[in-house]
Structure formats: structure tokens, C-alpha cells
Design brief:
Layout: E1 6-10, H1 16-24, E2 30-34, H2 38-42, H3 55-61, H4 68-79, E3 84-90, H5 119-122, H6 146-149, E4 153-158, H7 161-171, H8 177-180, H9 191-203, H10 215-218, E5 233-235, H11 236-241, H12 243-254, H13 268-278, H14 286-290, H15 306-317, H16 319-340
Parallel strand pairs: 1-3, 1-4, 2-3, 4-5
Length: about 350
């Protein structure tokens, strides 16, 4: 069974922080990293995002010197402490935005002299670095070399864009905008990057071919040598229908011990840990911070027509905003449905 660091790759607003809180309760055996690569993606000398163009804002963040390499080093240090490492991150932090070509991050290159390169000498944070002035690995859509990706146990968390996209939009308008400081960018929906990364890992034998909790597909997909990591995809709405069964199945898939107490975090120590982890993304995680556990829905969610979704968005946000939400929902549905076909069933 794998004891590699677990990497839960998600898109924004996939209920991933609530999912993460389950594992943050296991202080004695698990060390959690909350969206670490966003530090490099948004603020550091290797930053790929157009957000935070003001240098002072990046300096004030405390992450202006963070590189992909320095983040990985901090993860390695924690991994040496004997606890299982659990990383939850937004997968597009490993990609150049808007489907631009992505090459290996300078701090993750292996130069001829064997020493890690200084990202600050290779990247000018005042200039657009999409892609970096480095070589890409053939077929690899991310900034992270394959040999590093092989060190992780990748899993995936998804949610229907009809719910994730408007949830993200809400975080980018008043009153939450005053806290998050994020403007709305539909390119940050995150499904395209998640699908491309999933396919890369699957095609290169880093996950699969067995699929967690899917005997119906495994019987059809017996060809190919299995890796040590079965494909593990969780749909957030499935998780909210059956949280205990979903978390237990996830634990079985990644080699963690399951106990029902993981789903409750009503102790002050749990809230203190969460506040510290989530502080850097204030406003995005209020619901998860105020929660005391992962509980099943009391009523099954009723299906809606597209017209009903549009009407709901118009009522909440107005006609112009509803149109802004509708477009990325439609654009990302095919990627969501593609990943959904691999989702575990409990």
C-alpha cells in the first residue's frame, strides 16, 4: 500500500476545503498542506497568474520569494517527520493560464552542474512568464517534472460547474470581494487543467488502470499493467450524499486508516488548526471554517433544468452576471462529465 504524500487535485469551489478538514483532524498521523502551490503561482518569482501585478501586494503577502522548488522542499521536510503528508491544491496552479504552453518551473530544473537553479535569476516577476524560458517535458502539461510527480499519490475532486462556477463568482463580488480581493476570472474554473493533468497521469502510468469503487469499469479495463495507485475521483455532490461511505472508500484507496470521528471537528484545537491553514485565502473558506463536521444532506438535491439554473442566477446576481456564469458552465461541462465517468460509486 502506498505511503507517498497524497495530492488531492481539485478545481475551485469543489467542496475541497470541507474534504480537507476531515484529514486535518488527524493531527497525530497526517500533516496537511493547504493549497501550497498557490504561493508560487500568484506571488513568487515564478508566478504565472496575472493577479497581483503590484509588487508591494506580493511582498505584503509573505510569499513573494516562494518558488515551486521551495514549496516542494518544505513538503519533503514534513514528509521526513514520520506523518503521512496530505496536500489539497488547485490543479491549475501547476499550469500556465489560458492553455498557454507550460514548461518546467526554473526552480524544478536539473541544471548540468547538479544544483537547483535560482528562480529569481530566470524569471522577472514584472514580465509575463508564460511559458518560462525553460524546456517543457514532452507530453507533460504542468510545471512539475514527471520524476517529481511520481513521488505523489494523486487523487481528484470534482463538482458540477452549475454549482462551482456561481460559488466562485459569489466570492469575487461584494460583500466577499472586500475580503478575498479577487476579481472574477472565468479562466479560473479549472476543469480543463484538471482533465489534462488527469489524462497525463493516466496515460503515463502514474495512476490506474484500476478505478476505485468501479468494478463495472475495471472489468472492461483489465489491459495494461496496474500502477500502485488506482484512479480515485470523487464527485463532491456524491460525497455530500454519503460522506461517511465516501471518506471510508477514499481512505481505503490511498492507504489511510478510516475512523468515523474524522468527520467531526468540533474541538477548539481543530478550529485553531483550520484558522491557521486558511488565513491566506480569507473569505473563500468561511463555510468550512464555521462548520463542525461533514454531514450528509438531509434532503436529496432535486434536479434542475437549465432554464431553472438561469432563473436562479438572474434572481441572485442579475441578468448580466447570470450570462457571465452561464458561459463558463457550458464551456466546462464536457471536462466535468469526462472526469465524472471515473468517479467512485459508494
Amino acid at each position: 500500500m502506498s505511503d507517498k504524500p497524497i495530492f488531492v487535485a481539485a478545481h475551485p469551489r469543489a467542496c475541497s476545503t470541507a474534504f480537507e478538514r476531515v484529514f486535518m483532524t488527524q493531527h497525530d498521523t497526517i500533516t496537511c498542506f493547504h493549497e501550497p502551490f498557490g504561493d508560487a503561482f500568484y506571488y513568487g518569482p515564478e508566478r504565472l497568474s496575472a493577479r497581483f501585478p503590484d509588487e508591494q501586494a506580493r511582498l505584503s503577502s509573505g510569499f513573494s520569494k516562494s518558488t515551486y522548488g521551495s514549496i516542494l522542499e518544505s513538503i519533503k521536510r514534513e514528509a521526513s517527520g514520520g506523518k503521512r503528508v496530505f496536500i489539497k491544491d488547485i490543479d491549475y496552479y501547476l499550469f500556465a493560464p489560458d492553455q498557454k504552453p507550460t514548461s518546467i518551473a526554473p526552480s524544478l530544473q536539473k541544471p548540468a552542474n547538479g544544483h537547483e537553479k535560482d528562480a529569481a535569476t530566470d524569471c522577472d516577476a514584472e514580465k509575463e512568464q508564460n511559458p518560462y524560458p525553460t524546456l517543457a517535458e514532452p507530453g507533460n502539461p504542468t510545471v512539475m517534472p514527471r520524476e517529481i510527480q511520481e513521488q505523489f499519490h494523486f487523487t481528484f475532486l470534482i463538482r458540477d460547474p452549475h454549482y462551482s462556477v456561481p460559488s466562485y463568482y459569489r466570492c469575487c463580488i461584494p460583500p466577499l470581494h472586500e475580503i478575498t480581493k479577487f476579481y472574477y476570472d472565468p479562466l479560473e474554473a479549472g476543469y480543463d487543467e484538471l482533465r489534462r493533468h488527469f489524462d497525463y497521469l493516466r496515460d503515463n502510468g502514474l495512476v490506474g488502470p484500476p478505478i476505485a469503487m468501479r468494478p463495472d469499469l475495471n472489468s472492461q479495463n483489465a489491459e495494461g499493467a496496474p500502477t500502485c495507485h488506482e484512479i480515485c475521483v470523487i464527485d463532491a455532490d456524491d460525497m455530500l450524499e454519503a460522506p461517511a461511505a465516501t471518506i471510508e472508500a477514499f481512505c481505503n484507496s490511498v492507504g489511510l486508516e478510516y475512523n468515523p470521528g474524522m468527520l467531526q471537528w468540533d474541538r477548539e484545537v481543530d478550529h485553531e488548526v483550520a484558522r491557521g491553514k486558511f488565513e491566506k485565502w480569507r473569505g473563500f473558506h468561511d463555510d468550512a471554517l464555521e462548520s463542525t463536521g461533514l454531514t450528509a444532506r438531509t434532503h436529496k438535491r432535486a434536479p434542475k433544468s437549465e432554464e431553472e439554473f438561469d432563473a436562479d442566477w438572474r434572481a441572485k446576481y442579475g441578468g448580466e452576471a447570470a450570462a457571465m456564469i452561464r458561459k463558463p458552465v457550458d464551456q466546462n461541462m464536457s471536462d466535468y462529465l469526462y472526469l465524472k465517468q471515473f468517479a467512485m460509486r459508494v
